[in-house]
Amino acid sequence: MGVRVQQEAFDAGAELNAFSSDVDGAGAVVTFNGVVRNDGGDMAGMEIEHYPGMTERALGQIRDEAMSRWSLEGALVIHRYGPLKPGDTIMMVATAARHRADAFAAAEFLMDYLKSRAPFWKKEARATGEEWVSSKQEDEDALDRWS
Amino acid sequence: MGVRVQQEAFDAGAELNAFSSDVDGAGAVVTFNGVVRNDGGDMAGMEIEHYPGMTERALGQIRDEAMSRWSLEGALVIHRYGPLKPGDTIMMVATAARHRADAFAAAEFLMDYLKSRAPFWKKEARATGEEWVSSKQEDEDALDRWS
Amino acid sequence: MIDVLYFAWVRERIGLPKERVETEAATVAELIEELKAREDRYAMAFSDLASLRVAVDQDLTDFDAPLAGAREVAFFPPMTGG
Amino acid sequence: MIDVLYFAWVRERIGLPKERVETEAATVAELIEELKAREDRYAMAFSDLASLRVAVDQDLTDFDAPLAGAREVAFFPPMTGG
Questions:
Q1: From A29, which residue of chain B is nearest by alpha-carbon distance?
Q2: Region D5-13: what's the mean pLDDT?
Q3: ipTM
Q4: CATH superfamily of C2-76
Q5: Among A75, B42, B118, D35, who pairs with B58 as Cys (CB 3.0-4.6 Å)?
Q6: Chains C and D touch (3+ CB pairs under 8 A)
Q7: What's the fold here for domain A2-144?
């Protein structure tokens, strides 16, 4: 439990089961899995760049903040970098709490923050060429609800 | 994908992986797992009674409502009945959408509705005896945000 | 004739999960009055309607719901799933 | 001496991921001015600060952040993780 940044693929189901068996006392476990979409049907793949060192630090701070804001039994963040194909799992967040409201809120908080505050950058490879994914205003706006 | 009501245990991780591979085009997969807590440390187990026929019907209606309210690639509800022990997984909800906001909202909606609108009743066996779990006003209040 | 089902503590108080009832009741509320008149265990089970829920033909409804054409009525406490 | 790191399209425009820079700049903004004065590729990479983010010693910060004692400054576009 904690934060993992890795290039290798991981088994989301196995991670869910391992996380659940680690969080004694939790009545509610929420997971989020981010998957590479094949938008437009012409996506060959994606490359995720990150900032080694700062990535782990930023994710750890975001996780600590979630643990202090809500009553959680545990929280896990796994995020991949490197080359990915459509259908590949990019990342996973898992939260465990006694009550479902805490588990849901913490998972959404983790997602909103890691979207815009953890140093990852996506580059898509399409039939038309390679392009860095632009950040979305709606992702920045999503942070407002937590302030 | 759909609705399953069963006495048998299920493997939440395997369900997550099967669900994810079924929902082509989804960028976001959210799961909720409900687990039997050992509140007070004296819980021997729990028995879940349900209303065969109506249970499947109610869960199906709640799932249909979620599918029509949000832009989803899929939604799954699994709920067990019968005897359960602390640590056992009671139920699981999974939602898949292109965007995370839809997947989160739909999962929370499914949870709020099945808590108070699907015909399940929990009876806890404790050192002090057996007792039917009381419904909580906060669970009823949670429905207000969807109306 | 109508099938009347009981769940959770309603089932335990009345002492059976299901029975066939001969009734001319036009609404759920009328059916409840008929049942309460039968025996104490029914009167006790139905003493606080605020703590009861009802489904007619497997759809949640209100106590003033009509019973015309209904085949199955179920009484139970507020649900506690999830 | 300070390590300056570039990521994503900032790295591509400047053409390298990391360099050691001899500087007396007191703030990130002053460092950016020094870099822009070097060559066109720096001037282009730093032409629109609204589309850039900066971290000093691996903490996100503002362009007016002081550099006293800093060992590592990183420039990159808004993040797109998740």
A1: B33
A2: 98
A3: 0.95
A4: Beta-grasp domain (3.10.20.30)
A5: B118
A6: no
A7: Aldehyde Oxidoreductase; domain 3 (3.90.1170)
